Amino acid sequence: MKGYKAPFGKLVCYTMLLMAVVMAAIKCTATGGVPNYPGYRSIAAGPIETGGTSSSRCFEVAPVVHATAELHELEPALLLGIIRVESNFDASARSRAGALGLMQVMPATAKHNRCGNLLHPHDNVVCGARVLTQLLKRYDGNLVYALSAYHAGSSLANKARSESRLPSNFGYVEKVLMARNWYLRYGCQ
After folding, report:
1. CA-CA to 172 of 20 to 30 Å: which in 53, 149, 159, 161?
2. Overall pTM surpassing 0.85 (yes/no)
3. What is the domain partition of the chain in residue ranges?
């Protein structure tokens, strides 16, 4: 996984990456990577429902997340973790600050990155992954600072980095990492 530095060394990083690949292989059929999840329904079949459980919404968005993660060389579980914390898989989510969609992307950020419709799941996930990839490059693969900046902007992460300390929004980072670990282990269940 390009740009990611494991906090506990390369062995853990490779182990986690292997787990993600194995889980993705288990959850897809051998014919073209079509997901084989119980209750799977393609996003192409129509808009994602805002009702239902977060688990059912996760299954609906998983194909887009996996394709986007592969394109941007990110872990699908990391994107799922961000989506879980940011919007609880609600494609129509709007924050008080004005962030939109699954990955809660700010419209100004989307405009700067030439993203599409933030309320469309595919466009939103692609845009959020693009932003996260840029932040990982900016912070030399440090996931803590990249997630902090994703959540609250670069100034907070820059200040923490310059002072060699954890960012003040580490609680957010911790929630995303815990959700990521859940999706690495259990998927959308």
Report:
1. 53
2. no
3. 10-183
